Amino acid sequence: MVREKMLFLVLIAFVLAPVSASFAQHSDPMRRIGVFMYLKQNDPESQSYLTAFREGLQKAGWIVGRNLEIEYRWTGGDPQLTRKYAAELVALNPHVILTAGGAQVGPLQEVTRSIPIVFVQVADAVGAGFVNSLAKPGGNATGFTNGQFDISAKWLEVLKQISPSMKRVAVLRDSANPSGTAQFGAIQAVAPSFGVEASPIGLHDTAEIERGLTAFTQQPNGGVMVMPNSLAIVHRAFIIAQTTRLRLPAIYPFRYFVTDGGLVSYGPDVVDQYRRAAGYVDRVLKGEKPAELPVQQSTKVDLAINLKAAKQIGLTIPPNVLARADRVIK
After folding, report:
1. Are the CB atoms for 35 and 70 separated by under 8 Å?
2. 151 versus 100: which is more confidently predicted?
3. Integer Cα distance of 113 and 270 in angstroms
4. Are 131 and 102 in contact (CB under 8 A)?
5. 173 FRET partner, CA 20 to 30 A, in 31, 147, 229, 305?
6. Is CATH 3.40.50.360 correct for 151-268+302-329?
7. CB atoms within 10 A of CB 28
8. Given CA atoms 301, 307, 308, 313 in this order, what sign does their dihedral have?
9. pTM reported for the whole predicted model
10. What homologous superfamily does CATH list for 31-147+269-300?
């Protein structure tokens, strides 16, 4: 009798085991993330960024469909869509929002000061008012920056080395972005030490870019610096085509500009920022506050050169610059 009772209990346990396991699997609390992208959905760069981000989340135990759902919004650099989708994401009440660039963080904070925000690719989070300080953000946002404004001097240094005759530099920047204005001010401050005069060109649309660059080439010995912002990234193919057509040496903030045909880039590893951002999102989902997570600067910076682009504008890259490059495209 005792043996029969034991066999009965074992049988019950065997039958209920899959049910219990299934219940445990689906009882994990579901978390919702909002992803607010300045690129278009079909942009290959956006997919490489989000792949790194999702891989980081998966390593931390967050699986889409099991304990995580992600809502995406793609603005393509359109200010109207940016405002619209910022409001839409906030209305969904996600546990945290991942976004990139000051042009995206600002509109988000206009509609929420409570939902946590993790950002990447922000040049000056303090100057833009997104955080109180890098060490103690103090609000609902934190994340990863592209570095301090002293990188402006490095851009000018590299550009002057590859084009020693340069006397003038056109700075393509978003005048509506506070970080862009501050970055241009930093460039103006260091330009005289390189014997260069800096002048701004807006990049709200392709017509403005073309007008500005065409007018700039009316005088000789010019070069171009492209500031890190969403509009420059959205219009990057057009900017690269125009600088090539006008035979202007140009330096860009991210490597993928060079991969797409640009001359030279010096800047942070963006994919690495998205991968690291997954760690901050994980910590927020587990209860930590953005106010207590320090803003981190990019730790990977590299120099990339496109020799084919140099040949197209009749430029020879000095050997000492080539020797320092992390990547050379032939």
Report:
1. yes
2. 100
3. 26
4. no
5. 305
6. no
7. 12
8. positive
9. 0.79
10. Response regulator (3.40.50.2300)
258 contacts 264 by C-beta, under 8 angstroms: yes
Please report, as a single letter, which amino acid is at residue 23: F
How many Cβ atoms from other residues are within 10 Å of residue 287's Cβ?
6
pLDDT digits (tens, 9 = 90+) for 166-196: 999 999 998 877 667 777 888 999 999 999 9
Q: What pLDDT digit, counting tens, does each position of 15-27 carry? A: 444 444 433 344 4
Confidence (pLDDT) at 178: 66
| Residue among 238, 290, 274, 266 nearest 108 (CA) | 290
Question: What is the rounded end-to-end Cα distance, in angstroms, of the chain?
Answer: 83
- 314 vs 255, more confident: 314
Task: Identify the residue whose tokens are 């060109």.
Answer: 201
Intervals of CATH 3.40.50.2300 along the chain = 31-147+269-300, 151-268+302-329
Q: Token pair of 9, please?
A: 């209990």
Q: pLDDT digits over 23-43, tens only?
A: 334 446 899 999 999 888 888
What's the confidence (pLDDT) of residue 28?
A: 62
pLDDT for the residue 5: 47
